[in-house]
Design a protein that fits this description.
With about 110 residues, this protein is an alpha+beta fold. The chain has a single domain (about 1-95), classed as 2-Layer Sandwich (GMP Synthetase, Chain A, domain 3), CATH 3.30.300. It is built from 3 helices and 3 strands. It has a 3-stranded mixed beta sheet, with helices on one face. The model has no long low-confidence stretch (mean pLDDT about 90). InterPro entries: Fe-S_Maturation_MIP18 (IPR052339), FSCA_dom_sf (IPR034904), MIP18-like (IPR002744), SUF_FeS_clus_asmbl-assoc (IPR014291).
Length: about 110
């Protein structure tokens, strides 16, 4: 039971770190933008993040996933991290949180 709590806590900490990463063209963090589809953590504390980009031709297509991976790998509780990019489903404004929409004046 304690390991489960630790994993839940680790998941929350990973999301906190992800929320410090911003899309350089939009003043909203990538989590609130809806670019993070899922965060998987196995029992060895290896993390896999499934994310997308606003477009396949995004100017930060190479650097943004690396930034996410590097920041997660730097966490003491994480053994390893990998970011996988997907465009299925494609990103759309509907994936943005209410907070992001409010920040961008869409509400």
């Amino acid at each position: 039971m304690e390991a489960e709590i630790d994993m839940a806590e680790l998941g929350e900490k990973i999301i906190e770190v992800i929320k410090t990463i911003y899309d350089p063209e939009i003043p909203v963090d990538i989590y609130e933008l809806g670019l993070i589809y899922d965060v998987f953590i196995n029992e060895d504390r290896e993390v896999k993040i499934l994310m997308t980009l606003t477009t396949p031709n995004c100017p930060v297509a190479e650097s943004l996933p690396m930034e996410v991976e590097d920041k997660i790998k730097s966490m003491k509780m994480v053994k390893d991290a990998e970011v996988e990019i997907t465009f299925d489903p494609p990103w759309s404004q509907e994936l943005m949180s209410e907070e992001a929409k409010l920040e961008l004046g869409m509400l």
